[in-house]
Amino acid sequence: MASSSSERGSDYEATHVHAVYEDIASHFSSTRYKPWPIVDRFLKALPDGSIGADIGCGNGKYLAVNPHVFIVGSDRSSNLIKIARQHHPHAAIVADNLSLPHPQHSLDFAISIAVIHHLSTPGRRVEAVKCVLEVLRRPSSEEAQDGGKALIYVWALEQKESRRGWDEGHEQDVMVPWVMKGGGEKRKEKGQRKKGNEALTERQEPAEQPKDKTFLRYYHLYRKGELEHDIEEAGGTVVEAGYEKDNWWAVATLK
Amino acid sequence: MKLLTLNFLTCARRTCKTSPSSFPLHPREAELEILESELNLVFLRNILPRLMWSELRGIGEELGLPSLPESPPSREDLVTKPSPAKPSSVTEPSSVEEEGGEGEEVPSQTAKDLHRLLLETTIKEGKLVCGNCGHEYAVKEGVANFLLPGHLV
Ligand SMILES: [Zn+2]
């Protein structure tokens, strides 16, 4: 179970989110290649020449979906960005969701896929959504529907069919293990570990066997309606929303 | 980092974003590298209206690159003019010219120059400096890092 909300914040995320992704980058990346259908559809429906941001792009799997738009992918993990930058014609930079280096109201679209749920307090989650919305172009007039659009995707609390089995009523702030199998070439040797990585625990396997390593990442599991609430709170308007395979998603614009 | 990226970047500090002098970021002590990629005419044409031309010209100058024309190219400038006016007759045997098949457009020198500048010219090492606050963002191994030290967040 995750710590109490008062202990969480940026230092907490540095340990329980950022450091973990930095360490599991290549292994994580090798498992992340199939785009989710809603995201795929959103990106392919963009007019050619659209300019956007993939905020928290990880290994850049969504940069491969549409080569007719230009996407600046960003992530806090420089190890993941090293993998993401291979996708042309796009770009990849290291940046924090809460301090994005994009001019305000300049982009046609933004995607935030499986990112906001890593922010560890309600205030920081709303702030993160606000930062995503802030890069979007404003509509040309109050009635116009032509402003930039953001697709936001977060892990759902309601997923009783999943391997994890969480559902309504369960604790929403959870630590989720990432197991790196011992012996694989992806495995890091002991001693190469970065300091300050308290999220790491080790499990001893039978003698001579390479050890598995379990990394714990913090997640806030979104319950029904919560994403829409955060978007409204952040000054956005939800234009479409739904549930797809253990995740809540919403398309939003600026009010 | 491709130079095109600079067209969509500014300082990561909130207080700088509303100040016009934070855009564009200024490359300093930049080591450039050409990373060749396939020219995509449609892509170039589509992003053309989004380019902040005078800012990009300024960046080119700061990097010591051949200077860009004062005004941005038009969409038409990106394709070579059909050499001798094509006869409208459909019976004309297609004299396979260049790599272009039927109806395929051939990128002009302007398009090639633009592609070279925006998509193939990259900053490998160096800094990007905010004109408003002076903060320097490092570029290492082709990746720009915009993480701010705690006291600037
Ligand atoms: Zn600045």
Automatic annotation (TrEMBL), chain A:
InterPro entries noted in UniProt: AlkB_tRNA_MeTrf/Diox, Methyltransf_11, SAM-dependent_MTases_sf
Biased composition (Basic and acidic residues): 195-208
Record PANTHER family: ALKYLATED DNA REPAIR PROTEIN ALKB HOMOLOG 8 (PTHR13069)
Organism: Lophiotrema nucula
Keyword presence, Membrane: no
Segments passing through the bilayer: none
Methyltransferase type domain segment(s): 54-133
Assigned GO CC terms: cytoplasm; nucleus
Superkingdom per UniProt: Eukaryota
Entry GO MF terms: S-adenosylmethionine-dependent methyltransferase activity; tRNA (5-carboxymethyluridine(34)-5-O)-methyltransferase activity; tRNA binding
Methyltransferase keyword on record: yes
Record key words, sorted: Methyltransferase, Transferase
Ranges where the record places region Disordered: 181-208
GO biological process terms held by the UniProt record: tRNA methylation; tRNA wobble uridine modification
Protein name: S-adenosyl-L-methionine-dependent methyltransferase
UniProtKB/TrEMBL annotation, chain B:
InterPro entries: Trm112, Trm112-like
Stretches with biased composition (Acidic residues): 95-105
Molecular function (Gene Ontology), one example: protein heterodimerization activity
Region named Disordered: 62-111
GO biological process, one term: rRNA (guanine-N7)-methylation
Family matches, as PANTHER family: MULTIFUNCTIONAL METHYLTRANSFERASE SUBUNIT TRM112-LIKE PROTEIN (PTHR12773:SF0), UPF0315 PROTEIN-RELATED (PTHR12773)
Family as reported in the entry's similarity comment: Belongs to the TRM112 family.
Protein's name in the database: Trm112p-domain-containing protein
Classification lineage: Eukaryota, Fungi, Dikarya, Ascomycota, Pezizomycotina
